[in-house]
Specification:
The chain is α/β, with parallel strands linked by helices. It is built from 11 helices and 7 strands. A 7-stranded parallel sheet has the order 1-2-3-4-5-6-7.
Length: about 230
């Protein structure tokens, strides 16, 4: 949600929905540890419940950033393992982290050890042309062992070369059944489905299979839906 879910957008969305869990734009660990912290973390109290989404790949740096989130009274810290942009790939975080599940687990454990906030992960169902279910199953299983109990799953593969971030939200086919299978295989985890939801009927249908849904583009193109 880069360049979209800033504090003004979130405040507007909160006026329309008292219950939705709102997420910040992805903020990199470097921006917090070496930049203007208030600029990135300040928000209105009415925005709660509010999650800070982080981008990074170093356990120590992510732990420090999570401590800042706790100091600023965020309700959740979310690690982005789903963004496919070239700039994010150059920083070796976002969707490419799915190829390193043990590193993600180390990052999650470092944050869990540092703060009492829930640490969640947002990710894709696969990378490039790999449609093997075992890839995402093993990713979730490895990261869950480190303490993550909530997985927000964008039901598309991330194509790391040849597609823009916009195309990555539209071109790879949605495969909701993969997310449903994750819930069946990990009944003790909270599995939240993301991708392509545009109306209440679709949401109701998906809630028969998963624990929650996340909406992105639909919420800012048609905010009154909230």
């Amino acid at each position: 949600m880069m360049a979209w879910t800033d504090r003004h957008c979130r405040y507007f969305h909160r006026l329309l929905s008292h219950d939705a869990l709102l997420y910040t734009e992805m903020v990199t660990t470097g921006a917090l540890l070496y930049g203007d912290v208030p600029r990135h973390l300040a928000y209105h109290d009415d925005e709660h419940p509010l999650a800070l989404q982080l981008g990074g790949n170093q356990p120590t740096a992510l732990a420090q950033a999570a401590k800042l989130a706790e100091q600023w009274a965020y309700d959740e810290v979310n690690l982005n393992c789903g963004c496919p942009s070239e700039r994010v790939q150059q920083g070796a975080f976002g969707a490419c982290l799915m190829a390193q599940p043990q590193l993600v687990a180390d990052c999650v454990k470092a944050m869990c050890d540092a703060v009492s906030l829930p640490i969640t992960v947002k990710h894709r169902i696969g990378l490039d042309q790999n449609n093997d279910y075992s890839f995402v199953r093993d990713f979730v299983g490895t990261v869950a062992q480190a303490g993550c109990q909530v997985f927000i799953v964008h039901a598309r593969n991330a194509i790391l070369g040849g597609l823009s971030p916009k195309e990555n939200r539209e071109v790879p086919p949605l495969r909701y059944e993969v997310v449903h299978q994750l819930k069946r295989d990990f009944p003790g985890l909270t599995i939240v489905l993301n991708g392509g939801l545009t109306d209440n009927a679709q949401v109701a249908q998906q809630l028969q299979h998963v624990d929650g849904v996340m909406v992105g583009r639909a919420a800012y193109h048609n905010p009154w839906w909230l």
